[in-house]
């Protein structure tokens, strides 16, 4: 999970905003987002602080707090979801009106038990065949490119109802 992206998101900013405001390269920000907050460089903290309009101490405190609480990347729109997929977020929390759109995708997926039954019963061959059929069908699909990306990436995630108004996506690897 990228604590940096969650922190920036909660301040209505993105990595690009940090780059645009301070000149800190997006490559540097990308590499920092995979590390623990305690290893962030002073220059990175200063750049984030300048971008969100807070002191360096407030930024460090906020980042450490997020790190402790295992914060989810929150998604309200398609753009947010595509950003979460691009950043390879481990946990994604779908919120508000966007929940209805994700539920449509969720209905087309097998439950973990059903998926496991198919995989065990076919010695894994059904997964290979299903991926091939999916890719072939995707070639002829009339969906927008954004929808194709979303549907493709969602296959890597388990979709669970988090509460009444929210859905949690988490990587399938965490179930094993």
Write down the overall geometry: elongated
Adjacency order of strands in the biggest sheet: 1-2-4-3
Helix content: 55-70%
What is the CA-atom radius of gyration, in angstroms? Answer: 19 Å
Structural class: alpha+beta
- Overall pLDDT, averaged? 81
Percent strand: 5-15%
Largest sheet: 4 strands, mixed
Assembly level: single chain
Model regions low in confidence, pLDDT < 50 over at least 5 residues: none
What's the total count of β strands? 4
How many H/I helices?
Answer: 10
H and E string: HHHHHEHEHHHHEE
Q: Separation of termini?
A: 18 Å
Question: Could you characterize what this model shows?
Answer:
This protein is an alpha+beta fold. It has 10 helices and 4 strands, in the order αααααβαβααααββ. The chain has helices at residues 3-10, 15-22, 26-32, 42-52, 56-69, 78-86, 98-107, 112-121, 125-140, 145-154; strands at 73-75, 91-95, 157-163, 166-171. Strands 1-2-4-3 form a 4-stranded mixed sheet. Helix 6 links the parallel strand 1 (73-75) and strand 2 (91-95). The longest helix has 16 residues, at 125-140.
